[in-house]
Amino acid sequence: MLTLCVFLKLPSLLARTLTSGTNGSPELPDMNEVRSRLREIVGASTNWRDHVQAMQERKALHTLLAKQQEDLPPRRMKDSYLEVILPLGSQPEIREKYLNVHNSVRFGRILEDLDSLGVLICYTHTKQEMQPKSPLSIVTALVDKINLCKRIIYPDCDIKFTGSVSWVGKTSMEVKMHMLQLHDGDYSPVLDATFVMVARDPENKGPAFVNPLVPESPEEEEIFNQGELNKLKRIDFSTASLLKMAPTAEERNIIHDIFLNTLDTRTVSFRSRKLPPNSVWMEDTKLKGLQICHPQERNIFNRIFGGFLMRKAFELGWAIACSYGGSRPFIVSVDDIMFQRPVEVGSLLLLSGQVCYTEKNYIQVRVHTEVYDADTRDHHTTNIFHFTFISENEVPRVVPKTYGESMLYLDGKRHFAAVMKEI
Ligand SMILES: CCCCCCCCCCCCCC(=O)SCCNC(=O)CCNC(=O)[C@H](O)C(C)(C)COP(=O)(O)OP(=O)(O)OC[C@H]1O[C@@H](n2cnc3c(N)ncnc32)[C@H](O)[C@@H]1OP(=O)(O)O
After folding, report:
1. Which of 199-213, 267-281, 403-417 has the lowest mean pLDDT?
2. Signal peptide position in this chain (predicted)?
3. Which of 70, 103, 228, 279 is buried most, with the most CB atoms less than 10 Å from its CB?
4. Whose CA is nearest to atom 29 of ligand 1?
5. Is residue 347 in contact with ligand 1, taking CB distance under 6 Å?
């Protein structure tokens, strides 16, 4: 079962060009230009040794911040609409970076591109003509969802990304992006993505207001209202979190049934557990990784680039799904990636993931990342990632043993149900 991608029908004529492209599509900018444009907008240093100086210079931009949102001119959706090309077909020399062993495109690289583009769309929304540098530090707060409608992304066909701001709060912006790939002269949909970005002051220390958004047609009104609904849905989901509330009666029954099913019937004991046929204990699905966060992976604000964190977590998640299902897994959906705190350059990033729910061919994987401070020995969670994969064959059932694992199972089941509702 695969998604039908829904498209924001903004005429491509409205596409804003950043500069004239150097790729096969002369009118469209490419991903390299997205990154250099971002560097220019915030005045990021090209050399790591200059980063303190560059941040010092950004301090002066504090005076350009709006005191209230009403002081900022409203924007239309088309004001932030961008089209960007990833010229994999017309520029073969860039393919290598995107290629996986199956001769298709590495999804982790696409996550990085979506993140960069999402931030540029927000800078386009908040652009003030008179300000060559933006006083805003725009960071990724949440990847609400990415739904794919194609299993394979071809490494030798051009890709087009489109997107615009779809909803605005006081300091946060929802961005909807779409990815299409060129086949036989036509672009066909590959994925839809919804991100939430948050504007911060020039030093990324406190929140900053962003321009309001005014929908101009009933269709835009609907997109905007959906953004508002998405915000409420996120609040509901987080209120019902199993970290805050007990599972529902139905969920408790599911967990109790799994528990009874794992008791060894030969002994009259609650302690002797037995793995049912065609099942795997959840604890046996774990894989871990460590990443030293070098300056090369920094973003324009000298913290670790969100796209890099997503790529690393995705690749661990993919490896978990691969070894669990025993065949090549395909990504179906990414949802609810919360960037809880920034990752500093130089951090030790610990990644740990496991299968937390399975159904037929589907594998729900959760990856947890935390930074470890070697001086204080403190651990702080930075992100939780949820990935839904589909395997070629039906997969064994994953079985929780402890109460904590049962909560992970239920959380995975909730995420899986939300994904299935969307696709
Ligand atoms: C230099 C050379 C390199 C160049 C490389 C080029 C690459 C390009 C790289 C470019 C890419 C660069 C990109 C990167 O790499 S960014 C790097 C990855 N992201 C981060 O590191 C962010 C880490 N998290 C934080 O810093 C905080 O948690 C943030 C700032 C996000 C929130 O902090 P806090 O909780 O204290 O905030 P608040 O309570 O004041 O609320 C403020 C607003 O935020 C809304 N909100 C908050 N959380 C969420 C949520 N989960 N879902 C939806 N909304 C959320 C909230 O409703 C409110 O909205 P509003 O009601 O005001 O509207």
Report:
1. 267-281
2. 1-15
3. 279
4. 141
5. no
CA quadruple 412, 414, 415, 420: dihedral sign: positive
CA of 140 to the centre of ligand 1 (A): 5
Question: Quick one: pLDDT at residue 21?
Answer: 42
Stretch 297-321: mean pLDDT? 94
Q: Please state, rounded to an integer, the average pLDDT across all residues of the chain.
A: 91
Dist. CA 27 → ligand 1 center (Å): 32
Residue 4 has pLDDT above 50, yes or no: no
pLDDT tens for 156-206 read: 999 999 999 999 999 999 999 999 999 999 999 999 999 999 999 999 999
Mutate to test the pocket of ligand 1, among 50, 198, 204 (most ligand atoms within 8 A of CB): 198
Q: What is the DSSP letter of 261?
A: H
Instruction: Identify whether the C-beta of residue 77 lies closer than 8 Å to the C-beta of residue 223.
Output: yes
Q: Is 163 in the pocket of ligand 1 (CB under 6 A)?
A: no
Other CB atoms within 10 Å distance of the CB of residue 70: 9
- Assess whether the C-beta atom of 399 lies below 6 angstroms from ligand 1: no
Between the CA of residue 167 and those of 77, 198, 226, 321, what are the distances in Å?
9, 12, 8, 34
Distance 89 CA to ligand 1 centre (A): 34
Ordered DSSP codes for 149-206: S-S---TTS-EEEEEEEEEE-SSEEEEEEEEEEEETTEEEEEEEEEEEEEEE-TTSSS
